[in-house]
Amino acid sequence: MKPKRKTSAQEAVERMHDDAVVFIGGFGRGGVPENLIEAVCQKRLRGLTIVSNNAGTSSTGIARLLEEGCVRKVVCSFPLAKESVVFKGLYNKGLVDLEVVPQGTMAERIRAGGAGLGGVLTPTGVGTDIAEGKQVIELDGRNYLLERAMRADFALVKAHKVDPMGNLVYRKAARNFNPIMAMAADWVMVEATSEVAVGDLDPEAIVTPGVYVDAYVAIASAGQSMETAA
Amino acid sequence: MKPKRKTSAQEAVERMHDDAVVFIGGFGRGGVPENLIEAVCQKRLRGLTIVSNNAGTSSTGIARLLEEGCVRKVVCSFPLAKESVVFKGLYNKGLVDLEVVPQGTMAERIRAGGAGLGGVLTPTGVGTDIAEGKQVIELDGRNYLLERAMRADFALVKAHKVDPMGNLVYRKAARNFNPIMAMAADWVMVEATSEVAVGDLDPEAIVTPGVYVDAYVAIASAGQSMETAA
Amino acid sequence: MTATGLTLDQMAWRLAQELEPDWVVNVGIGMPLAVVPFVDPAKDIIFHSENGIIGMGPELEGTGVVDNDLLSAGKRPVSLIPGGSFVHHADSFALARGGRLDAAILGAYQVASNGDLANWKLPGARTGSIGGAMDIAIGARRVLAIMTHKTRDGEPKLVERLTYPPTALGVVTKVFTDLGVIAIREGRFILEEVAPGVEVGEVSAATGAELCTEKTCIMSLPR
Amino acid sequence: MTATGLTLDQMAWRLAQELEPDWVVNVGIGMPLAVVPFVDPAKDIIFHSENGIIGMGPELEGTGVVDNDLLSAGKRPVSLIPGGSFVHHADSFALARGGRLDAAILGAYQVASNGDLANWKLPGARTGSIGGAMDIAIGARRVLAIMTHKTRDGEPKLVERLTYPPTALGVVTKVFTDLGVIAIREGRFILEEVAPGVEVGEVSAATGAELCTEKTCIMSLPR
């Protein structure tokens, strides 16, 4: 197995383009690839569709992308957190579109995209606003929504450790959406806190096999784990 | 978290009953819970539906259950291996029913059962005998089969290590169907090669969280890993 | 009128008594978080956090250092119990929808007598934050709602039919309010317990649907 | 007539040349297994085994001890390459269907000129063993079939329309037989290479559909 492309954050995002669909890992501030996001900001892309659990908190993560005017649409489960001030400002002015997806449905739609499925049938959202425009399928007397698989052009993934083959492990709840997003994008970029040698990761404990990874950056994020509380 | 029920193979299978649907892990001879299977044989159950990748090889694993007359139906992907002599004998005499499921579809149907989904849409099997009687759904010009979720009354799972909370890790390719079967059965019994203390398993490397496990047996199988070649 | 009802701590204490030993329980953000400190550690409840924590331990306070990789769904620093583990988001919600949650504790805007739950979006609002509520509500074996009995404007929140956008249909099994404990069975609200000092008639009047009070007891509070 | 064609080893050698560096490749059981020893290790091919091995190493021989926990899909003892890993069955087939397999090498009963593949069940048989073939055939970016050009009875296996039960429709990209290499493009068989010593007309006669031979070269074999 040949090593994956190890690169800088700036080089990693080079092939990203306007109007792309982009998965970004993270839940709150855990597992957010902040350095890759910053590199996208600096590239001044436009018209991105961002798929992520939140719509950015304070001025970090996705809030940075929104602030820089890179984003046309946000697909997420929790857009209106108290700290999502940048998103709320743009959304209220009609400057950014929003698709709200139940968190578990979002996870399954992404996983289905990665697994080459067309979609899944879920009981979640039946009889709610989320069902609007979706096909309802009855099986054994129970109703399910047909939820379509979701893929992205690019995924920005935050990992704990990476080896030169692209194998990844995560840290605690920073795992969140990262492994399934890595499975479901055409080009997967990883920001890992540290790099280890081939063979240092236990084959039984690798969460994302390197076959899913296209490029990686090894860099410790300032604003990530173990920061001092404000 | 209270310890799970640690028990003998005989006690573990006590609540199993005739006509139950039973998941059994394994692929070839890797990851087959042979001691639990033997306990089921000794209980002389009847009318079981067995869901497993193979239909038993030589006279081990599922072949034992078939030999003992416990099985009414086998659901599997690979029934006709050269060594599946017991199955072929019974099948040719019409003494056991068979449902053949593509291996990846079987995996997704089981996972869907575990994930509380009604089913998945898969491109696998479109235009083949497997599609018979199944709903075809077209999305963006591509056809998918609606494959129903599958659950079982009981799962027999083979793990490498178990802790008293029921957390599991597996060994190499003996992982196979075991983790997804553990997610999708109402009562999950585990046969682990060894037992370790709580905290000995790395929380990042646990494959099956203990919440899925109902009872476990710690026992080294004679016919399992590292046997001398015949 | 509800001045005689329970405090939030008392509501939370009462709900905590509902949890049985060894249950796997998901706790929503907001009011449900108040329940956790009242849960008897001897019950060995396994808390599930939607962001992939199985065996979430108590919240950490005043340590000065925040581990952003170990936050609750409410984004507060927590710990992991011995024997706990981490899974990714698809596996976390597989657990929630797949029937391994014995109970979910959720906040609510409205609960209907058929068990319908509204807790994510205000009527007429352009949008709201669903988070994991729809999946958890549909998946948990028991949905325990905790909310005030009435809105700030004095409108009943226990209703015959939702007027707020629903989160999930027919899922709520019990409601814990400042006035009492209301079970939902066969499409009816059943007042199982009334808060000490509150009249049963007062609860009926504050409820927007028929309330069965035949077997109502007075709630026992500690001390 | 096919006495002048390639041996199995030669067919396997030729197919092995088709694999490009760093590809992720699934190898089916049966004839495809013959390909692996001919693959240049310098190409760093990552072999995927359906039973959850990513980075399957060469088969082990004559060690006397068999590790049943590390067998190929064909149930033969194998190794894991450095940097390899294990996944469960749902994740293994997610990889196969999800587009991360650059190629799959599969045996075949029949291949049709529209790319339809038959390899799991004989006509009229009550059943057959599918295994992972349907998922892998539908998921891999390229399906490379390896088979003899004709059946033992002399019937063509490259056909205009399948008469055997299909495994997957429109998936085969190239066929490697004892007589040559046949690409499938726009619903047509294209004889890219003919085995040394075999006449192009002989291949056409052995093929049950139109065979485009405009740009056929003679295959170069080693030595």
Give a short summary of the structure.
The complex is a heterotetramer, with two copies of chain A (230 residues) and two copies of chain C (223 residues). Chain A is α/β, with parallel strands linked by helices and 230 residues long. Chain A has helices spanning 9-12, 34-43, 62-67, 85-92, 103-114, 178-183, and strands spanning 5-6, 21-24, 48-51, 71-76, 97-100, 119-122, 136-139, 142-148, 152-162, 168-169, 185-195, 215-218, 227-228.
Describe this structure in words.
The complex is a heterotetramer, with two copies of chain A (230 residues) and two copies of chain C (223 residues). In chain A, 20% of the residues lie in helices and 28% in strands. By secondary structure, chain A is α/β, with parallel strands linked by helices. Chain A has helices at residues 9-12, 34-43, 62-67, 85-92, 103-114, 178-183; strands at residues 5-6, 21-24, 48-51, 71-76, 97-100, 119-122, 136-139, 142-148, 152-162, 168-169, 185-195, 215-218, 227-228. In chain A, the strands form two sheets. In chain A, strands 1, 2, 3, 4, 5, 9, 10, 11 and 12 form a nine-stranded mixed sheet that branches. A three-stranded antiparallel sheet of chain A has the order 6-8-7. Chain A has one domain (5-104, 150-218): Glutaconate Coenzyme A-transferase. Chain C contains four helices and 15 strands. In chain C, strands 1, 2, 3, 5, 6, 9, 11, 12, 13, 14 and 15 form an eleven-stranded mixed sheet that branches. A three-stranded mixed sheet of chain C has the order 8-7-10, with no helix packed on it. In chain C, a hairpin with a 3-residue loop joins strand 11 and strand 12. The radius of gyration of chain C is 17 Å and the shape is globular. The two termini of chain C are 24 Å apart. The model of chain C has no long low-confidence stretch (mean pLDDT 95). Classes of the chains: A alpha/beta (230), C alpha/beta (223). Chains C, D: GO terms for molecular function: CoA-transferase activity. Chains C, D: Pfam families: CoA_trans. Chains C, D: This is 3-oxoadipate CoA-transferase subunit B. Chains C, D: InterPro entries: 3-oxoacid_CoA-transf_B, CoA_trans_fam_I, CoA_transf_AS, NagB/RpiA_transferase-like.
